Regulatory protein (Sphaerimonospora cavernae), 109 residues
Amino acid sequence: MRNIPVDLSALSFTVAGEPEPKIVDRATGEVKKDAQGRDLYTVPLLPRPNDDRRNPVIVVTFPSETFPSIPEGVQVRPVGLAAFFWTMNGRSGLGFRAESIVPAAVKAA
């Protein structure tokens, strides 16, 4: 799986829903972890400008040490946002990952 960096220079993002843990096993509730052992979460983001009226929201996966407190409606910046193509069980799609989700006013390190 190859990550493709996303150019954020002309985009802004608004949180379109509450963050949720990325679940590995629904029966046990086990949360998926990244290579560093941090829990992975997903958050729906509305990029602007966006011409896709059928599917305007993207869901971004990101790691966090604690449950993220990201309120709906705030502007954020997905640091290190990358797109990737996935295939599983005969299905495929486009996914998004970020190193972190920060308030829009915070500059990347």
About this structure: The longest strand covers residues 39-48. The CA atoms of residues 15 and 73 lie 5 Å apart. The domain at 4-103 is CATH 2.40.50 (OB fold (Dihydrolipoamide Acetyltransferase, E2P)). The chain has one domain: 4-103.
